[in-house]
Design brief:
By secondary structure, the chain is mainly α. The chain is about 75% helix and about 0% strand.
Length: about 290
């Protein structure tokens, strides 16, 4: 067995173990289910059509929330997990393990992918049953749903790992990442038609992956008549693929080096100092 094969084997085995722990943790599972419930409640209270189309606003919002669930898993949940585990000494232990960082990243990717796909499937099925939400209409739409979801996760999970490697501590991590992600939620065409936003806002949103994830999922879930509400009047699927691929490459280039750097900087004295500071501030019990 080659060294690379051993790393993949160790990472996948660790990922399966972490997935089992997650499924047995009722508190964490409830938190993820809450996101789906909130999306369904918002969609249930909408009754208008998307301006200029016969498409119910409910369908557009559910497609947008589907993209945001994927985005949130990679850019909010994963960085918080990494920062917390770094504080607990996980990276310090990995530093002494051959192939530890890549295997650790593989495990986290597996965990996040299962969590994201499960949340997406639950939202789409529950939406279709409870609020007449959208589903793909044919094999081509299912294929689009598959590749947009795959590329979207490849774009945000490594990026989330890179962000988690540089965030200061769990107490500040949520505040530092929630404001930008909520801003993107409001400006990326996930809860409002993208054409309802000012052009400069559209241009800024187009730099980030959430806008293209939402647009790609809309192309899979909504009929072609919904293209009238898109900024370009079309789904721009080649651009969706290009932007998400670019973010995926950037994330992979950053994630492993930044995690290795964070592991090299870890030491017992740094962990003790962080714990003492947190205790003095009242963030953790003495």
């Amino acid at each position: 067995m080659t060294n690379r094969t051993k790393i993949w084997h160790a990472g996948l085995r660790r990922g399966v173990i972490e997935l089992r722990h997650l499924l047995r943790n009722g508190k964490e599972m409830t938190g993820h289910l809450t996101n789906v419930v909130v999306a369904l409640l918002v969609a249930a209270y909408l009754s208008d059509d998307v301006p200029g189309t016969p498409i119910p606003m409910t369908h557009l919002v559910l497609a947008g929330f589907a993209a945001y669930l994927l985005f949130q898993v990679g850019l909010i949940n994963l960085p918080q997990i990494l920062v917390t585990e770094r504080e607990e000494g996980a990276l310090l232990r990995l530093r002494a393990t051959p192939g530890g960082i890549p295997a650790y990243l593989i495990a986290k990717c597996l965990l996040m992918v299962v969590l994201a796909v499960g949340s997406l499937a639950l939202l789409l099925v529950a939406g279709a049953l409870l609020v007449d939400g959208p589903l793909p209409h044919g094999p081509g739409d299912w294929l689009t749903l598959l590749w947009v979801t795959t590329l979207g996760l490849l774009a945000v999970i490594p990026l989330g790992a890179a962000i988690g490697a540089v965030l200061p501590n769990p107490r500040e991590a949520l505040a530092l990442i929630m404001l930008p992600t909520m801003g993107l939620l409001l400006t990326s065409g996930t809860v409002l038609p993208i054409t309802a936003l000012p052009v400069p806002v559209q241009q800024v949103a187009a730099v980030f992956p959430l806008k293209w994830m939402a647009q790609g999922l809309r192309s899979a879930l909504l009929p072609d008549s919904a293209r009238a509400a898109e900024a370009a009047g079309s789904w721009e699927l080649p651009m969706v693929a290009l932007v998400l691929t670019a973010w995926a490459v950037l994330g992979f280039l950053l994630a492993v080096p930044l995690l290795r750097r964070a592991a090299r900087r870890e030491s017992g004295s740094r962990m003790t100092a962080r714990h003492r500071k947190a205790t003095q501030s009242g963030a953790v019990a003495a």
